[in-house]
Design goal:
The complex is a heterodimer of chains A (280) and B (242). Chain A is mainly alpha-helical. Chain A has eleven helices and no strands. Chain B has seven helices and nine strands. The chains are: A mainly alpha (280), B alpha/beta (242).
Chain lengths: 280, 242
Amino acid sequence: MSVTTQFDVAGGRIPSSAASPGVRLGAGSLVALSWLVPVLLLIVWEALARYGWIEPQLLPAPSKVALTAYKLTVSGTLLHDLSVSLLRAAVGFAIGGGIGFALGTLVGFSRLAEALIDRSVQMVRAIPFLAVLPLVIVWLGVGEGQKIFLVALGVAFPIYVNTTLGIRQVDPKLIELGRVQGLDNRELITRIILPGALPSILTGVRFSLATAWLALVVAETIGAQAGLGFLALDAREFLRTDVIVLTVVIYALIGVGADSLARLLERRLLTWHPNYGAGR
Amino acid sequence: MTVQPPASAFRTNAVVVSGLRRAYGERTVIDRLDLVIGQGEFVVLLGESGCGKTTLLRALAGLDPIQGGTVEVPGRPAVVFQEHRLLPWETLWRNVTLGLRAADARARAAAALAEVGLGDRLDDWPRNLSGGQAQRVALARALVQEPKLLLLDEPFAALDALTRLRMHGLVKDLVARHQPGVLLVTHDIDEALRLGDRVLVMRRGVIAAEHRLSSHNAAATARAELLRELGVALDGGLPSSH
């Protein structure tokens, strides 16, 4: 569209917000604008902290946080605590995910298993899993067991629910086809039912990654000797808000990382699916 | 289903049904039905909705239990449904060889897909296919098993008119080459006349009429009779034969 036409439209008789010149932005500029706002906020924060408008002990400048990140990385503390936290999350995820998947598969396939297991699981699921933390501390103390248990508990339910749902939602016509083609039970499960349930199971994985992370943050703020939560608690003792802000930022980054990981899994495993596949 | 030991009759018969009874609870849908389909014979089953055609096909496929009589099929029958029922998470060649136990599965899939004109799409996904192409893959999946009995449950009903005509030609060729006995369930009289060696009309659970189609003239006469038997009243009497 030429410039003249634009003016014709804008100045003419057709009222249209999109047509007014000066407001029209390409997709690229909109993306740039969406990044500009957080960057501006950071600059404002930095300026306010630099000129003493914010008490540095309440909220340190972003540059100070970055410097602290650098120092802690060089000294190796940060990496150590980070790996301890990630290991807890991974172990808890594996245990909780394994249990959730096993129970979900059982209940998905067998009405008897559903009758035996499902109601109890749903009852326990109704409890906000963080509410049992005091009880878990009584049972397991404040060691690694308590942290891994809490993560596993948070992870198990989303995986359980989505596995059961996924198996139940597999198109019965495809299962019938499998029988027509002479598949035995094992082939029916591996070639039709589990692949059919996979999108739902992966949704469960994505949910549970978020829960795992939340569980870890809470579990680590109680009696940890290492890990990101310990880093934050330790810093609180010495009013090191820069370290506290750093751990918060790292928690956020890992949350984003976990989500991308889940999305990568979806793209890889669901190439066939029109909603996830990486194109034709 | 009673599958009896291969009697001598099986050299020529793709299915022998005798005294078949199929009921849903109290309601009998098929009662004392007898049917023999020969090897290489193309039988079309016409009838109004709810007359029991699909019920009969499902009983022959072994998908539903029967309440009386016997169905004898040599080996496992293959079925093509109205929907293609391709597994969206498997490539075309894996779909075609679903349930096939053979070391050279991929080669067989390639041959079967080539027969339906999709020989260059082995590693493609079902979502990239048109309705007609998907149904052709379903046909390849049925024939790769070399069935003695091929059951077609309105497989062309969801296709557009031109694609349907092309599919008719393809199915006719494939059946001529592989020589399975075929039972095609359809609503479409012209489809029946084009494809069938024999056309059966089913009404209230029994086979009410039968036409053997040997010549063009027979088909034209049969068309008029079939319309009458299906209860289709045409204004101005029967259509002129052409």
